Amino acid sequence: MDFMEIIIETDVKNIGKAEDIACMAAKGGIYTEDYSHLEQEAREIARIDLIDEDLLRKDRSKALIHLYVSPEENPAETIAFLTERLNSNSIEHTIKSDICRNEDWENNWKAYFKPIPVGEKLYIRPEWIEDYDAGDRVVLNIEPGVSFGTGTHETTRLCLEVIEKHIEGRKTFLDVGCGSGILSVAALLLGAESAEAVDIDPLAVKMAKQNGDLNGFAPPQYKVIEGNLADKINGKFDLVVANIVADAIMMLSKDIRQFMNPDALYITSGIIDVREQEILDTFERLGFQIIERHEKGGWLCFVTKAV
After folding, report:
1. Three-class SS of residue 118?
2. Residue 18 phi/psi, 5° resolution?
3. What pLDDT score does 50 carry?
4. What are phi and psi of 110, to 5 degrees?
5. pLDDT above 50 for 51
6. What's the whole-model pTM score?
7. DSSP 47
8. Domains along the sequence of the chain with CATH
9. HEC secondary structure over 222-241
10. What residues are paired with 224 via a beta bridge?
11. Which residue, 219, 192, 188, is CA-closest to 205?
12. What span, in angstroms and rounded, lies between the C-alpha atoms of 198 and 225?
């Protein structure tokens, strides 16, 4: 099987957080090039004094994180996931990708993205698939483009399953960091009367609007807004969802209460299990009671309410 190599370049000061985010997506291996302590490590670890001239010319202020993904893991979605998570953590970076062998990955990854049932009611259909059998499930048509959110990643599946469980009787929906818009569209298909989605990435906003159109949703029923949550969103909602990384959830949660109706639920996902205690501490400090905890493949999803 051929793999795609994805290379994240960032300042060495960001290497810890950037590696944590890369590890979330790297099931095919990861390694880091960090030359900031080259001479010291050469002496103390490698026990050598002579260092290759090419290594000495390396930029000591930058680090390169290499990770590898297989076609089943959808390289386009992996890049979108990394971009969204790095941006949400304010980590300046560039991302490059290359095929380990000569392949047309931009199109070939689609061969591995098949229609999938999610939860008890949803059936996610890539828009280029014509032959499918959804049975009595609700069909959610999706074109992810370069935005995170096809339903194949554990965090998205967790959110979709939890939304399905709690959407009944809840009319208004807010999706924070919407990516492809899959959660908002799913909420509408499952019975929400209206949904708003917000993202700082203009490409995500574009794809979220297109996915709304694919499923027959447009303003005022379905609004997609570019910008920051506190600056762009007005009103209160019955169900608020944030499928983003732990750091962004902890930062945003202090403002979430103002967008929640009295009986609203706040669902958070995209949290890797090693960050659980930090999230729990944040919820306790901000006055959110945990109603449910869900886990899939090392990822966590919490259902909370304000108390």
Report:
1. strand
2. -65, -40
3. 42
4. -65, -25
5. no
6. 0.70
7. -
8. 4-108 (3.30.70.600), 149-306 (3.40.50.150)
9. EEEEECCHHHHCCCCEEEEE
10. 197
11. 219
12. 5
